[in-house]
Amino acid sequence: MIFAYVIESLLDQTWYTGMAMNTENRLLEHNNGKNRFTKGHRPWKIIYTEIHPDWATGREREKYLKSSAGKNWLRKHLNE
To answer: Phi and psi (nearest 5°) for 53?
Structure first.
């Protein structure tokens, strides 16, 4: 199983969307500065996850969540 996830910077409320097999381990990598983009916005917290059966489905959903329509959907979903 693959997780599509969104994390939010506690520093400046920036969002980052990605995919991982283990979101907790991936969050540790983000918070330890292992990703160039997220390194400058530490610390991070997970604000949204979805489970997908395979990499292709997860990647499709990740791309959607990165789009403006996906970001709007996510904002609405998180506010409910």
So the answer is: -70, -25
Strand, helix or coil for residue 49: strand
What's the domain range around 45?
2-79
Q: Residue 56 and residue 26: Cα distance in Å, rounded?
A: 19
- Has this prediction a pTM greater than 0.85? yes
Residue 26, both tokens: 């991936």
Rg of the chain on CA atoms, in Å: 12
Number of domains in the chain: 1
Measured distance CA(3)–CA(36) in Å, rounded: 21
pLDDT in tens, 12-56: 999 999 999 999 999 999 999 999 999 999 999 999 999 999 999
